[in-house]
Amino acid sequence: MSNENAHIRLSVAADPHLARLVRMTAANVATLCAMSVDRVEDVRMAAEEAFIFACAARPGGEVAFDFDVDPARVALAVELDGPLPDAEPGDESALYADLILGAVCDAYEKRPEPAALLLTLKADL
């Protein structure tokens, strides 16, 4: 990739059947910067977890992915349609998403208004 930044936007219906599309797009975006194969897998996993979280939070809505890529990192904003839902007692899916995203991302934030997941994954090469 050149030294320039790239911006990629993907808008997908909040349908878990489209998770493969999100995974493959994220992996391809990650190859635009200097990431190892393992780190590309981390980006793919983070995008998929964020998408699954968004599908559960806003079924039937749209999920917008804004990828900002430069040679050193991939930043991803996952916009949710509406405010973040309140966690239901016993809902382990949101906890699992937080665990995975916190583990694989260099930075992870849930923004309440407007609702979004903000992820940053740095290149390791």
Topology of this structure?
Layout: E1 6-13, H1 19-30, H2 37-57, E2 62-70, E3 73-80, H3 92-104, E4 107-111, E5 116-122
Antiparallel strand pairs: 1-2, 2-3, 3-5, 4-5
Helix pairs in contact: 1-2, 2-3
Concise summary:
The chain is an alpha+beta fold.
- In helices, the fraction of residues equals 25-40%
Mean pLDDT over the full residue set: 87
Q: What is the chain-wise order of helices and strands?
A: EHHEEHEE
In the sheet with the most strands, the strands line up as 1-2-3-5-4
- Percent of sequence in beta strands: 25-35%
Keywords summarizing the entry:
125 residues; alpha+beta; 5-stranded antiparallel beta sheet; 3 helices; 5 strands
Polypeptide structure, described:
Strand 4 and strand 5 (116-122) form a beta hairpin. Helix 1 (19-30) runs antiparallel to helix 2 (37-57) and helix 2 (37-57) runs antiparallel to helix 3. The protein is 37% helix and 30% strand. The protein contains three helices and five strands, in the order βααββαββ. The protein is of the alpha+beta class and 125 residues long. It has helices spanning 19-30, 37-57, 92-104, and strands at residues 6-13, 62-70, 73-80, 107-111, 116-122.
